[in-house]
Amino acid sequence: MHWIYLIIAGLFETIWATTMKLSHGFTKISFTIYTIIGLALSMFFLSIAIKRMPMSLAYPIWTGIGAVGSIIAGVIIFGDKLSPLTWGFVALLLVSIIGIKITSGS
């Protein structure tokens, strides 16, 4: 169950990063509020996950999920353009997250 909480935390990290961009430097109040809520929920779920798993695994996986999610959000929502080489490194990041999960024994 702690892995599910960690995935949820990573997804909320993607949400708060995306809404922070949409807040235009915290000048749009609705997106600023979504950013704060997303950040709080991300930390909440991370804190639950980290009770049952080592911080040395939870933190990099949480940031990795947030990073990959933010990249995908940037491409879909903001029209960011990534080179094929960059996509290759995103794939390596995904493989690394999955590898950590598989080899962690939890």
UniProtKB/TrEMBL annotation:
Q: Does the keyword Transmembrane helix apply?
A: yes
Q: Recite the UniProt keywords alphabetically.
A: Cell membrane, Membrane, Transmembrane, Transmembrane helix, Transport
How does the protein's chain sit in the membrane according to the entry?
Multi-pass membrane protein
For whether the record's keyword set contains Transmembrane helix, the answer is: yes
Question: What transmembrane ranges does the database entry give?
Answer: 33-50, 57-79, 85-103
Record family assignment: Belongs to the drug/metabolite transporter (DMT) superfamily. Small multidrug resistance (SMR) (TC 2.A.7.1) family.
- From the Swiss-Prot or TrEMBL record, give the protein name: Multidrug efflux SMR transporter
Q: To which species is this protein native? A: Companilactobacillus futsaii
